């Protein structure tokens, strides 16, 4: 009888230990699960509305990238035109060039505005001739345009700034694609800086190019020349502005809070 009593008591203790161990294990698992859930909630990400905002700003940035590529790849940055009286009464010649290539164009005098003193503009119907890439990218020689000599250091500096700006645009685009595919806001910060600096470099390239034009005009005064920036330079200027604005917007989206909501909350609490 006593042996039966002791055996029942030992079985009860074993069952209690087993039950306590199971409940303790379940409690530990629950604590770990709760911790992992809290960690999952605390992980920063992008919501559906933020993804839409990122796509919209990226579309604006792509417009700037397209304008930058169009402006940097074409040769209508500046037009150089001598007076119409410098040539015959039937034709005159105008030159236009960009970062990489220059062209000479023969225009018909009848197509030019009678009130215009110089030849041009270059978009008039005419005969395109002698389109060549600048030699200072290959052999290091300067080019001569209407007896004026280009300054290769300034031209190469403008081209280098333009190429580096394109590299930053590609890097920023990769960061935005990573943001949209991974859903992480971390990539918005480097994308914003890349877009802002690419816009600044594009505008600096335009400024340096304008200085190269002034140096070209000052190299000789035998033939009077009229110069004006053309549509490629306008594309570059607009592109630089758009890229800077897009970079600032991406920087605002990368903040852990919404500035608009913070201002509205502050005004509501003040009232």
Automatic annotation (TrEMBL):
Q: Where in the cell is it found?
A: Membrane
Q: Which GO terms describe its cellular component?
A: L-type voltage-gated calcium channel complex
Please tell me where this protein is predominantly located. Answer: membrane
Q: Does the keyword Zinc apply?
A: no
* Alphabetically ordered keywords of this record: Membrane, Transmembrane, Transmembrane helix
Domain of life here? Eukaryota
What topology in the membrane does the UniProt record assign?
Multi-pass membrane protein
One Gene Ontology MF term:
calcium channel regulator activity
Q: Please give the biological process terms from Gene Ontology that the record holds.
A: regulation of calcium ion transmembrane transport via high voltage-gated calcium channel
Q: Which Pfam families match?
A: Claudin_2
Q: Spell out where the chain crosses the membrane.
A: 56-78, 156-181, 193-217, 229-255
What name is this protein filed under?
Uncharacterized protein
> What taxonomic ancestry is recorded?
Eukaryota, Metazoa, Chordata, Craniata, Vertebrata
């Amino acid at each position: 009888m006593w042996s039966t009593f002791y055996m029942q008591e030992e079985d009860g203790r074993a069952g209690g230990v087993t039950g306590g161990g199971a409940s303790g294990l379940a409690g530990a698992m629950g604590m770990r699960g709760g911790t992992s859930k809290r960690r999952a909630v605390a992980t920063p990400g992008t919501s559906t509305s933020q993804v839409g905002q990122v796509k919209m700003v990226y579309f604006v940035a792509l417009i700037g990238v397209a304008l930058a590529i169009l402006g940097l790849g074409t040769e209508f940055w500046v037009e150089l035109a001598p007076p119409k009286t410098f040539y015959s009464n039937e034709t005159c010649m105008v030159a236009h060039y960009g970062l990489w290539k220059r062209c000479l164009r023969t225009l018909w005098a009848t197509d030019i505005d009678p009130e215009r003193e110089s030849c041009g503009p270059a978009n008039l119907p005419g005969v395109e001739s002698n389109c060549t890439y600048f030699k200072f990218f290959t052999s290091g020689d300067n080019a001569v345009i209407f007896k004026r000599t280009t300054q290769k250091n300034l031209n190469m500096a403008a081209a280098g700034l333009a190429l580096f700006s394109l590299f930053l645009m590609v890097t920023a685009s990769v960061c935005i694609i990573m943001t949209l595919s991974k859903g992480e806001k971390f990539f918005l910060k480097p994308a914003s800086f890349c877009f802002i600096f690419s816009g600044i470099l594009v505008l600096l390239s335009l400024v340096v190019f304008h200085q190269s034009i002034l140096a070209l005009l000052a190299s000789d005064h035998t033939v009077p020349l009229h110069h004006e920036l053309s549509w490629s330079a306008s594309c570059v200027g607009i592109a630089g502005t758009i890229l800077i604005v897009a970079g600032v917007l991406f920087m605002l989206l990368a903040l852990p809070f919404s500035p608009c909501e913070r201002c509205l909350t502050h005004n509501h609490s003040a009232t």
